[in-house]
Amino acid sequence: MTRIAALTDAPREWLGPGSKEHKSALLNLAHNLFPHDNRIDTSSKHRLGASLAEALNVPWSSDFTATGQTIKLPGLNALLAGTERHLGRLGEAVTDAVGTPEAEGDALSAALLASMPVHWDGRQAVEWLARRSLRGSNDLEWQGFYGEERAKAILNASFSPKVPGPIRSYGPTVFDYGLSWVWDIKVHTAFQTDGASIKRASDVMVLNDERAVRACVDEQGLGFLVVSGQATMDHTGEFKAWHDAWKLNRSGRQAAPSNSGVSRTRKTAFTPLQVDAYWVPDKLALEAAILAGQLTPRAQGRQAPKIKGGPGAPRPPKFDMNIVKANNGIRVASYEWPEQESLA
């Protein structure tokens, strides 16, 4: 509630009895953003929330409200995300609300919720990356590259980074984004759809180079912005055939073979479900996260060989994150796409 009020320089709000939000916070928001908009219905708190969501062009659901004229946290988060998008250049508008890395992670996550595409088609994403000469259009895990690039574009358009900003380069590793603090952006497949079945994927995801992570944490702390979602698997092989032909047409040569000789199932689409921010402030916190099993240094397999039968180049160790454990430890913010809550 304090952050919603801060966005429009309204009087600071707090939760009322029973941890209920005050209607005045939403009335202040409506008055500041839409003073003469006939869409705004102030006859009840529920109608006010729904009409604000319509004006802000954010999803709204009956699941966002409860008896006793209460708007639940997901509903408040949706309104917050829409307000931040509506105002633009968030770093200038809510400076007082992003004075800590935890608050910054919350603001960045809200911006991604507000502007990230809600469905990623594999073919369109691959072509989007290629048209902009960005990495990842040839990769099996195209959704990781696409999600990172779209996230960087959203954050760069939404915030004004400080100049000079925080250090993002450590050896050959460059972390994705820096506002007042440094953040690395990752996409995690939480669920897989294969035909008619939906199954939970691994709770463990790969982060970045171990030495670079340790160096950044030691110097200034490091955060992770993770977009988790549901992948539609290519159970027919149609996307693989298209992708292979597309790559051959662009490069004129066959794709490099995998180390195992077995091609992994591709993903034809990806639907974001949730965005989370994680923050590791210093070396002691990193070691505590390792001891708790939230983060784990792990050796990596070799890269795919350049030629058939040849050895792939070695990869340096990276950190893994156990999402379930990290959610109960280093996580500092979390938002869900409301229409997808039933799948999470």
Topology:
Layout: H1 2-7, H2 23-33, H3 45-56, E1 65-66, E2 70-71, H4 73-87, H5 90-93, H6 101-115, E3 120-121, H7 122-131, H8 142-158, E4 169-170, E5 173-174, E6 177-178, E7 182-194, E8 197-200, E9 204-209, H9 210-220, E10 222-233, H10 238-251, E11 267-280, H11 283-291, E12 295-298, E13 318-322, H12 323-327, E14 331-336
Parallel strand pairs: 7-10
Antiparallel strand pairs: 1-2, 3-11, 4-5, 6-7, 7-8, 9-13, 10-11, 11-14, 12-13
Helix pairs in contact: 2-3, 3-4, 4-6, 6-8, 7-8
Structural overview:
The protein has 344 residues and is α+β, with helices and mostly antiparallel strands. It contains twelve helices and 14 strands. α4 crosses α6. The radius of gyration is 22 Å and the shape is globular. Mean pLDDT is 84; it is low at 11-20, 91-96 and 340-344.
Could you tell me the strand content as a percent range? 15-25%
The stretches of 5 or more residues where confidence is low (pLDDT under 50) are 11-20, 91-96, 340-344
- Tell the overall outline: globular
**Counted beta strands:** 14
Rg calc = 22 Å
Average of per-residue pLDDT values: 84
How would you spell out the order of helices and strands? HHHEEHHHEHHEEEEEEHEHEHEEHE
Number of domains: 2
Summarize the biggest pleated sheet. 7 strands, mixed
Helix-and-strand structural type: alpha+beta
Helix count equals 12
Q: How many angstroms does the end-to-end distance come to?
A: 25 Å
Fraction of residues in helix? 25-40%
